[in-house]
Amino acid sequence: MQTGPGDNEIIHKVLQGEQAQYALLVNRYQNFVFTIALRYTPNREDAEEIAQDVFVKAYRSLADFRGESKFSTWLYTIVTTTCITFLRKKKIPIHSLDNEQVFEIADNQNSAFRANQVEQKSKVQVLNDALRLLSVDDARIITLFYQAEQSLEEIGRIIGVDPNTAKVKLHRARQRLKEKMEKHFSEEVKDMVG
Asked: What is the DSSP letter of 98?
C-alpha cells in the first residue's frame, strides 16, 4: 500500500524545482525496476547498473510524463528499452544449468544453507530458462504479472489491450509456460515437486 504523496504530486514538485522529492519515487519503485531488470539479465550487478540508468533517464525525461497512465507504466517502458539497449551493448552470455561449475560449487559446499541457496537458484534458473522458450509477448505478460506485480489493468495499458484481453493472454501464456516446463524441464520439475 502506497503511503505519502501520490506519484503525480511528487512529479509536480520535482518539476517545480524540488529535486530532492525524486528520491521518494526512487524508493517507491526501486524494487519494481530491479525486478524487471533482473528478468533481462541474471547478473545482479548488471541489473543494479540498469536500474540506476533507468532512474537517471526517468529523471531527465520527467517533463515528458503526461500523466495519461500510471507512473509505473511509463517507467516500465523506460526499463524495458534500457534493458534491451544494455544487453545489445554488452552481448551478455546466458548461463545454463548444464554448466558443470554450478554443480561443482554445490558439491563443494558442506552446509545445508548453501545447498538450499543453490536449489533456490536452480528453481529460478529453470523458470527463467523456460520463460526464454516462450514468445516475447508471453514472457513479458508473465513477468509483468508475477515479477513486476502489475495488475491486469496496468498490463493492459502496457501492452495496449483491455484488462479482460490481458487476463486471457496471461492465462494462455501460463498454459504455454506449463507446457514448456513439462516438455523441456520435466526432470527438474519432478525434483522441485518431489
From this structure: T
* Structural domains in the chain (count): 2
- Residue 124 is predicted with a pLDDT of 66
Domain that holds residue 102: 96-194
Rg (CA), the chain: 19
Average pLDDT over the chain reads 77
Rounded CA-CA distance 8/118 in Å is: 42
Q: Using the structure block, give the residue that is written with the C-alpha cell 528453481.
A: 123
Tell me how far apart the alpha carbons of residues 101 and 190 are, in angstroms, rounded to a whole number: 23
What digits encode the pLDDT tens for the residues 118-142?
Answer: 444 466 677 777 777 888 788 888 8
**Listed residue (40, 55, 131, 125) closest to 86, CA to CA:** 40
Helix, strand, coil percentages, rounded to 5, for the chain: 80, 0, 20
**Three-class DSSP category at 25:** helix
Contacts of 35 (CB under 8 A, 6+ apart): 147, 148, 149
- Looking up residue 45, the CATH number of its domain turns out to be 1.10.1740.10
Give the cell for residue 55: 532512474
Place of cell 528520491: 23
